[in-house]
């Protein structure tokens, strides 16, 4: 499915959602109980999907929408049973949004034949919109982006992330500590930032050199994977093999940073 001729419509739809939430940012009190938190997250999801579907479905016809339940591991192990469908990470970094701090985005990805084919990540606080179409390159506010050209690990920035699924593994402590040790031994700067898709987009824009996560978080990755890949990034699992849907880890970065990560 060729998106290029109508990409601006999808991008504007995502921006409209982001602008709505920007207008509401820091107006509601920070949730103080688990029930309040989950209730507010549900409201955010409902508003996002309602607004997006209204604008997207008008342009793109009857393309179905799949559920994005990041708390359900099984739903992230394989693509939904559609030839082509939309998947929306309704607000990547919603916890930051609710806590009144930066680091939240609206992400949308079109999946075709089990692979990301078109994706958008919009950061309302900076008014930065990343998008990519398979084999057509990656863009930031309409301008092409490419990964960093850094050669030295001393000034590379590596990110270590984890999601809600981490503790579903009985060896999560070993996995996380091993990943942290590996990164801190090899790279000059190691951080943990927040919205996973945006960090992958930042790799595409040359702002981050390596992103590593050692647990299953497929839906949070998909939009950013396409942007990073189209900008020239390498996408692997933590065992060094090419990343595939269902892998419970991911390494995304420049070819130089990925090679450094796997050095003995």
Automatic annotation (TrEMBL):
Pfam families listed in its UniProt record: Inositol_P (PF00459)
Keyword Metal-binding tagged: yes
Chain positions recorded as Mg(2+) binding sites: 89, 92
Single annotated GO MF: inositol monophosphate 1-phosphatase activity
Source species: Rhizosphaericola mali
Cofactor section: Mg(2+)
GO biological process terms on file: inositol metabolic process; signal transduction
Name of the protein: Inositol monophosphatase family protein
Keywords: Magnesium, Metal-binding
Superkingdom of this protein's organism: Bacteria
